[in-house]
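FORM 12-B: Structure-to-Sequence Request
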């Protein structure tokens, strides 16, 4: 019975984590470049139960040998194994703002497992390495540097900060920034062959142990940079709401099982124990 408590409780914890993940997805449905998280729920390793007993060798002898009878397998609960972002391309939404730049491209699977690569803007990280993001909702700071909404510097293809005289500039579809009829620099776009190896952080940033290669040097990679657009979140709000309802129902079912175990244990202690 006590094992049942742990099994039901593990189901409640797993569904609570899924609900928190789905709530975060829904809260970022309007965040440019946001990639929805996906969860995988896995059962704990099964336990194989056997009944241990002694079997008599013969009726005339008291000798016996130990034997075991297979009872069957029992699950010990579930847990959320991992949460991984879905890097599927989001729709583009026109904003008309010069500093808004969206990445757009169809990338074929790049690994033997059929995983599709992804491209990211390169963001300066003063602590360690670079950060990567799909959020192209940029702005210019007081010094004319192209920055993210959080004030971090956007880097060019050479790994330098991008400084402009004003927000009156143009970005070609191959990433070149032009101002006053002169080429300034090229946007830094990195390519991740397996984006699942990236570590997701706050504010839509991803990090990588090492440095991702430039997307401009990858053979067969085709993408465009679209000025005046942002990439919308790839969260499907109606599907997310449905999954939230299913997670809530599953949590509620485990809760009722837990209550049933509690009532049974109460009777065993207070009623049966008196007899």
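FORM 12-B RESPONSE
SEQUENCE OUT:
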């Amino acid at each position: 019975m006590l094992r049942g408590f742990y099994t039901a409780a593990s189901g409640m914890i797993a569904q609570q984590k899924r609900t928190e993940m789905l709530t975060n997805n829904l809260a970022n449905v309007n965040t440019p470049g946001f990639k929805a998280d996906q969860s995988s729920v896995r059962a704990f390793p099964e336990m194989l139960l056997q009944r241990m007993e002694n079997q008599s060798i013969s009726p005339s002898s008291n000798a016996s040998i130990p034997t075991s009878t297979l009872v069957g397998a029992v699950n010990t609960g579930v847990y959320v194994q991992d949460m991984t972002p879905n890097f599927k391309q989001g729709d583009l939404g026109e904003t008309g703002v010069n500093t808004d730049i969206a990445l757009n491209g169809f990338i074929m699977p790049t690994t033997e497992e059929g995983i599709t690569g992804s491209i990211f803007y390169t963001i300066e990280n003063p602590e360690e390495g670079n950060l990567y993001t799909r959020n192209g909702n940029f702005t210019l700071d007081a010094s004319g540097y192209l920055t993210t909404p959080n004030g971090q510097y956007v880097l060019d293809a050479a790994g330098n900060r991008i400084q402009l005289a004003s927000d009156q500039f143009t970005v070609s579809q191959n990433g070149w920034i032009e101002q006053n009829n002169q080429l300034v620099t090229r946007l830094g776009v990195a390519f991740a062959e397996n984006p699942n190896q990236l570590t997701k952080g706050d504010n839509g940033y991803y990090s990588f142990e090492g440095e991702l290669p430039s997307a401009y040097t990858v053979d067969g990679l085709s993408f465009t940079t679209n000025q005046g657009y942002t990439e919308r979140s790839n969260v499907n709000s109606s599907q997310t709401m449905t999954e939230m309802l299913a997670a809530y129902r599953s949590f509620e079912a485990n809760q009722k099982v837990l209550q049933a175990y509690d009532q049974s244990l109460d009777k065993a202690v207070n009623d049966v124990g008196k007899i």
